[in-house]
Amino acid sequence: MNHFFYSGLKNYFEYLYIKENPNSTYDFNDIINYKKQKICHFKNYIYKYNKHYDKQYDWFKNVNEININYDPLNLNTRFIDYINKSFIFKKINDNEYIFERNETDNITKLFYHYNSNINTGNFGDIISYYLFEKLTGYQHVYYDIANTHYDDYHYIINGNIINNKSIIWGFGINNLYLNKNINQYKIYCVRGKNTRKLLLDNDINIYEKYGDPILIMPLLYNKKVNKIYNYGIILDINDYEFINNYFGTLQNIKIINLIIQKDNNSIENLIDIINSCEIIVSSSLCGIIISHAYNIPVIRFKQSHIHEDEINFLDYFESVYSYYYETTYDITYIISNINEIIKKYKKPDMIKDRQIDLINSCPFIDNCLKNMLIKMII
User: Fold this and answer.
1) CB count, 10 Å around CB of 251?
2) Residue 268 backbone zone (phi > 0: left; psi -120 to 50: alpha; other: beta)
3) Which residues, in sequence order, are CB contacts of 279 under 8 Å at separation 6+?
4) Residue 68 β-bridge partners
């Protein structure tokens, strides 16, 4: 650790990475991936107890699972007390015990909506865990505040159910779910000005930082994909059956369903599909945001039975456009007049500003690595 102290670096994993990879170039993702490998190594390593460890308590702080041949005569009381406070104690047999410890003392609990029975959910919700793990290197712990009575601090990235132990980063909120017991000191960023105004109107004071976290996805995953489809149609869950029946058999059109499995491959495969489309047509706010993030022209359509609150769209559009721009068409009109409509498309001019706001305000990105991530913004 002395070498780390004199290195001038503030992140220990960056120091280790440079030490093992001298003269190499690297970015934020390289450091986080390296960190994950180190954590995995510690988790899977088996340690046997011997006498000198009981005087080196800090040695165990980097260990997630310790398998110790337990001999009460050789363990002093200070060491036993340390283990009881720092680890979950599991007995294997009369002579062997396992001591399990979390990867980090930092908060890793995260709430988002998904169907745990079939391990599926909406992309806009499930992306929360992907963002957290890619930005921290830690494995998240799912924390269902909707169905439990637990009262621990937890992160919320996307969603609108919150309580006074929620640590909020970049989400939108409407009157229906407003909780006046929100801890204003735990709100780091909101989707747009309408969300902030609603909070201010209820005496909840927050900084002027805006952005939907999905906007920083290209910094974390940006695979080169060939264009295959002329149009991709991203649907609100309520529109899927109608649109699929109407357009599903047409060539060069990809119907995109945002309900996916909760795993990294499903998330990345969906992004690849979206990137394989020249133009996106979307009734889903999430579809619009992910298209903007990856610089794909996107046109909004709206069906009469859509359930998503209009204020959410306005909240987002005002955060990424410095001028008023929000045009909605009927889906059949769009497909018939796509060339005319696309000429009117205006690219959002404040995406980079929102990405910087999101990174600087994020409560779980290592502050020492934030500038490294900001440098990746093109």
Assistant:
1) 6
2) alpha
3) 230, 231, 232, 296, 297, 298, 299, 338, 342
4) 97
The pTM of this model reads 0.82
* Spatial CA neighbour of 334 closest among 232, 257, 228, 229: 232
pLDDT of res. 5: 47
Map out the domains of the chain with their CATH numbers.
Answer: 1-36 (no CATH), 216-354 (3.40.50)
The answer to whether 258 and 235 have CB atoms below 8 angstroms apart is yes
DSSP-assigned states of every residue in 263-312: SHHHHHHHHHHHHTEEEEEESSHHHHHHHHHTT--EEEE--TT--S-HHH
**Is-contact 158 132, C-beta < 8 A?**
no
In this structure, are residues 373 and 352 in contact, taking their beta carbons and an 8 Å threshold?
no
Q: How many CB atoms lie within 10 A of CB 270?
A: 21
pLDDT digits (tens, 9 = 90+) for 313-325: 889 999 999 987 7
